[in-house]
């Protein structure tokens, strides 16, 4: 089975994740902070890293960026956070993460995500090996069949699948943006126009293009369960 490194400064979460994964047959190493994680990476190669964003010494995204800059990433990384935002998820992808788990992490979600990412990584490595063997001149481009990350934020009805064309990804983002902000603005188009900075005449058109109809929100049972409280955006520490 795969050898997994779990990096989290909270001992309770670290131990629970390790226990669940060991019970599923994985070999587990744990690290309580960035310095321990650095030592683990130097001493051993892993099949997967579960990396917490919020840590007291060096945050997870800074550590991920450091590993990538020094070519130390030889396995997939799944970021974890109890304060996840789209911004932090996008930063994680930019520096090499393949998925994002929001705390509290359920047993099912943990195991499903770990299995999926390991499978995606194996397919990606296989595609790379085929590309290297079939390419006479290495142009440095990634394999055309590469499996890219898929992030899901179910509380915002948002799925970011980077395997899709840019147009489709932006359509999903726009739909989630309008649905979420419309609810936070109490279904007021005037307030939504001020919040978004879009004139109301254009706002109706853009919402319709994104598949968001104001009348749908007035149908009993159409409005989703209460949205999570608005959280301040994550700002990683500068190295």
SSE map:
Elements: E1 3-7, H1 11-23, E2 27-31, H2 34-43, E3 48-52, H3 60-69, E4 77-81, H4 86-94, E5 99-102, H5 107-134, E6 150-153, E7 158-161, H6 166-184, H7 189-196, H8 200-209
Parallel strand pairs: 1-2, 1-3, 3-4, 4-5
Antiparallel strand pairs: 6-7
Give a verbal description of the structure:
This protein is of the alpha/beta class and 239 residues long. The chain folds into two domains: 3-151, 3-Layer(aba) Sandwich (Rossmann fold); 158-218, Arc Repressor Mutant, subunit A. The protein has helices spanning 11-23, 34-43, 60-69, 86-94, 107-134, 166-184, 189-196, 200-209, and strands spanning 3-7, 27-31, 48-52, 77-81, 99-102, 150-153, 158-161. Strands 2-1-3-4-5 form a five-stranded parallel sheet, with helices on both faces. Helix 1 (11-23) links the parallel strand 1 and strand 2.
Radius of gyration: 20 Å
Give the class-level CATH name of the largest domain. Alpha Beta
Give the mean pLDDT: 80
| Helix fraction by DSSP (H/I, runs of at least 4) | 40-55%
Number of helices: 8
* Corresponding CATH architecture of the largest domain: 3-Layer(aba) Sandwich
Strand content: 5-15%
Low-pLDDT sequence parts? 219-239
Categorize the overall geometry.
Answer: elongated
> Going across the major beta sheet, what is the strand order?
2-1-3-4-5
SS elements, strand count: 7
- What would the CATH topology of the largest domain be? Rossmann fold
Terminal-residue CA separation = 35 Å
